[in-house]
Automatic annotation (TrEMBL):
Molecular function GO labels: exonuclease activity
Protein name as it appears in the record: 5'-3' exonuclease PLD3
This protein's UniProt keywords: Exonuclease, Hydrolase, Nuclease, Repeat
Name of the gene this protein is made from: Pld3
Bilayer topology term: Single-pass type II membrane protein
Protein family per UniProt: Belongs to the phospholipase D family.
Catalytic activity: Exonucleolytic cleavage in the 5'- to 3'-direction to yield nucleoside 3'-phosphates
Pfam families referenced in this protein's UniProt entry, alphabetically: PLDc, PLDc_3
Subcellular location: Early endosome membrane; Late endosome membrane; Lysosome lumen
Domain PLD phosphodiesterase: start-end pairs: 18-45
PANTHER family (UniProt xref): 5'-3' EXONUCLEASE PLD3, PHOSPHOLIPASE D - RELATED
UniProt xrefs under Gene3D superfamilies: Endonuclease Chain A
GO CC term, one of those recorded: late endosome membrane
E.C. no: 3.1.16.1
């Protein structure tokens, strides 16, 4: 319905290009305002799922930079490593840099926390982020708090990994690590909505930076 109304619509075949999906969610308005967040643009995400986003107003510098990413997506795509433009920081590098720079605390909220390749087969151990959180807690005394979603579609393997991370909080290690599960309450009617009532946001906060994605 957007195309007949005059909107330019283009589909990017990310599975063909990278084997992945286009998972980014952002808006640009008039080259001045922007929104970046976790929510998909549908009624379920915006009314039945716990999301987080950042709206920035009257910031043409940041909006202009984000437009470059949109234009790259418009042509092919930008974020996955094979398509990441020169001068751009890949997602993993940005995440690890925020953790490594923390000196006081790292607070993380995610839907799924699994140090493994979740959607590829065979599954492989992938501890890049998990290792950095443990190192921050153990070597630098950074307080780590992690909030993960718990819902009917949570991977069973996630819970022992979370328990392992939480086990660092022991008097013998001196680590300050706290792990909690977040359950979005649902009425009987809401429980019948598929893939809803979940903590879907993804963000990280330290005393120096905030990462929203």
């Amino acid at each position: 319905s957007l195309s007949p109304a005059g909107a330019a619509v283009r589909a990017v075949d990310m599975p063909q290009l990278t084997g992945g999906v286009l998972h980014t969610k952002f808006w640009l308005v008039d080259g001045t305002h922007l929104y970046v967040g976790s929510a998909n643009m549908d009624w379920r995400s915006l009314t039945q799922v716990k999301e987080l986003g950042v709206a920035v107003y009257n910031c043409s510098c940041l909006a202009g930079d984000l437009r470059k990413i949109f234009e790259a997506y418009w042509a092919l795509g930008s974020s996955p490593p094979p398509l990441c433009a020169r001068g751009r920081t890949q997602d993993l590098g940005a995440l690890l840099a925020v953790i490594d720079a923390a000196e006081a605390f790292v607070h993380v909220a995610v839907m799924s926390y699994l140090p493994a390749t979740e959607f590829s087969r065979p599954q492989r151990f992938w501890p890049a982020i998990d290792d950095r959180l443990r190192r921050a807690a153990f070597e630098r005394g950074v307080k780590v708090r992690l909030l993960a979603a718990c819902w009917p579609h949570s991977r069973a393997a996630m819970f022992p990994f979370l328990a392992s991370l939480a086990a660092l909080a022991d008097n013998r290690t001196g680590c300050a690590v706290e792990v909690r599960l977040f359950v979005v309450p649902a009425s009987a009617a809401q429980a019948r909505i598929p893939y809803a009532r979940v903590n879907h946001n993804k963000y990280m906060v330290t005393e120096k930076a905030a990462y929203v994605g």
